[in-house]
Design brief:
By secondary structure, the chain is mainly α. It contains 1 helix and no strands. It is rod-shaped, with a radius of gyration of 30 Å.
């Protein structure tokens, strides 16, 4: 019923479909890991801003400010 050419073409199509499915799976996991890496970077950046040196004052010092009250 099927000639050799039909079987060969169907095999190639099946291989291409399997490769495309594998690429979609990799793209989906890499996007998730990319988002996780961006989130981790943002957390580290925010944490580094909050955990500065202890000798730094929390508010700016007002030196020679005319309205000190």
């Amino acid at each position: 019923m099927f000639s050799q050419n039909h079987l060969f073409v169907q095999t190639l199509i099946d291989e291409k479909l399997a490769a495309a499915a594998a690429e979609r799976l990799v793209a989906k996991t890499s996007t998730t890991s990319h988002l996780k890496a961006r989130f981790d970077g943002a957390v580290k950046s925010a944490w580094s801003l909050l955990s500065g040196p202890a000798e730094r004052p929390a508010t700016p010092t007002l030196i020679n400010y005319p309205f000190r009250g």
